[in-house]
Specification:
Elements: E1 22-24, H1 31-42, H2 46-61, E2 67-74, E3 77-87, E4 96-104, H3 113-127, E5 132-138, H4 142-149, E6 154-159, E7 170-176
Parallel strand pairs: 4-5
Antiparallel strand pairs: 1-2, 2-3, 3-4, 5-7, 6-7
Length: 185
């Protein structure tokens, strides 16, 4: 079965040259680049994505949505973005803080951008008082699983757990921030 087009091929021994990455909260000016990166992965239209991305960014800034979003910048260009948020228990997923996705633009993959985005998101969750963090991904997304295992994530369940995509088989992973190498304070 061919892999879906929404995640990178798993090539564990193939790495590009590491690059200097700055991860930060996005500004309004970054939202267009975020929409283009999303559209590139989803084979969608950045103009259609823009209202949703703007709405999420606005709600996060107003502190009415328990999420964070961050962007990775390389030499002045937005190379990727990541999100995390709090989820109530639903379907087979436990209540708690979740890493809810990163997207890295293809020219920047396997160069440390995904690792930088993941580390930044975990640090943001420490600031919010999290002690453990969950993450789920398609069962076949081995590149993402390997990335997250480097932060201490271990698989705790597998199945049709995503209520938003009940046909998808996912892996549910969890880490404690202590196991990931982070401490409060």
């Amino acid at each position: 079965m061919p892999r879906p087009p929404d995640f990178a091929d798993y090539r564990p021994h193939e790495h590009g040259e590491p690059i200097a990455v700055t991860v930060r909260a996005p500004t309004f000016e970054d939202l267009s680049a975020v929409a283009h990166i999303w559209a590139e992965r989803e084979n969608g239209d950045a103009q259609e994505a823009m209202p949703l991305i703007w709405k999420e960014w606005t709600l996060i800034r107003a502190q009415t949505l328990p999420r964070t979003i961050c962007v990775a910048e390389v030499a002045g260009e937005i190379a990727g973005y990541g999100r995390c948020g709090y989820r109530d228990a639903e379907g087979g997923l436990p209540e708690g803080w979740y890493l809810i996705g990163i997207i890295v633009s293809p020219p920047f993959r396997r160069r440390g951008v995904g690792r930088a985005l993941t580390g930044y998101r975990l640090k943001q969750l420490i600031l919010r008082g999290a002690e453990e963090v969950f993450y789920f991904t398609d069962v076949d997304n081995l590149a993402s699983v390997a990335l997250h295992k480097a932060f201490g994530f271990v698989e705790i369940d597998r199945g049709r757990l995503n209520p938003k995509q009940p046909e998808q088989t996912v892996r549910l992973l969890r880490t404690t921030l202590k196991r990931a190498g982070y401490r409060k304070g």
